[in-house]
Amino acid sequence: MKHDAEKNGIKTNGVEKNAVEGVRTEVITLTLPTPFRVGPVHAYVLVGEKKVLYDTGPLTDEAWEALSAGLKAHGLTIRALDALVLSHHHMDHVGLAGRILREKDMPVYMHAKGLPYVQHAPDFMEARKTFLSDLYRASGVPESLIQAAQEIQAYYQHFTEPIKDVIVVGEGSIPELPDWEVLHVPGHAPDQIALYDRTNGRMIGADHLIQHISSNAFVEPDYGTIQRPKSLLVYREYLKRWLKLPITIVWSGHGEVVTEPYALIETRLKQQEERAKHMLALLEGAPSAFEISKKVFPKLYEKEMPLVISEVVGHLDWLVEEGHAVLEENRGRLYYRPHHTLSAKHKGWEGP
Ligand SMILES: [Zn+2]
Ligand SMILES: [Zn+2]
């Protein structure tokens, strides 16, 4: 579908000027380096009556320099900012928050589910570590890879520092951005929030929708409950919600501006369906999630085990939820087998 970005006066090449009437907030893209495989991350400054920074980049000197230089190129400084919005707790998006706040104290907004992560709440971090190790173990992951994942996780902590005072936002708006709506968009992360300008259909969406890579629906514990959220199912639900919203442009956390959001969402939903179908074909012999990982991601399953297990478990959840597969537990291990007595509804593939 054709978008209205050009009509709205938005250039889609990274630096946006919104000169057309009705667009009250200018969106400035700041591209910041990260030391991670994902590559650079985008932070955004929304300049209306107030100046609001959405995301910060990781806690590195390089990202700090790029942030300062990017602000300066637009005649801004950190001290000129009025508020900070954190899209979700991943370190490439929030790492510099503490350093920014030392430069200038300002309100910080985030979803409640992100709080224990950015505050490094010790009991939560410990419970999360146990949750993930238990999940990996039950999925058949060897101890050496679980150990390696824990070490990487501990290393990642160096790219954030705990921040204390956070103002919790759900859906709604924040005082500094009266023209923008905060939308909760869980799936990739349980706490992710987007900013949506309903008047013009402009969306700042972090990692919910990325042009060049499919976002991982990372399996995370749900703080305060014993249930494991089925993150891929949550992600699909919230992707579909965007199909019903008028959206002209999406500024993502990584990569190009998305100018055909509906087409990209349909592509992502289809890819998930194809992947689930592929996994369903691998369930003879009742494998574990780790055994399936080896087959579906032969090059990545060791190097990127946490991401791969999330991806595989997410799709298996979906197959189980829709009655295509059955989950069986045997001595603490989880195995998946195809459901052979499918109901009429499930004969053939209608998509999980
Ligand atoms: Zn992320
Ligand atoms: Zn990201």
TrEMBL record:
Q: What Gene Ontology terms describe what this protein does at the molecular function level?
A: hydrolase activity
Q: Which SUPFAM superfamilies match?
A: Metallo-hydrolase/oxidoreductase
Q: Which residues form the signal peptide?
A: none
The record's keywords, sorted A to Z, are: Hydrolase
Q: Which SMART domains match?
A: Lactamase_B
Classify the source by domain of life: Bacteria
A Pfam family this protein belongs to? Lactamase_B
Domain Metallo-beta-lactamase residue range list: 40-254
Question: Does this UniProt record's set of keywords contain Disulfide bond?
Answer: no
Q: Does the keyword Hydrolase apply?
A: yes
What is the protein named? Zinc metallohydrolase
For this protein's source organism, the top of the classification is: Bacteria, Bacillati, Bacillota, Bacilli, Bacillales
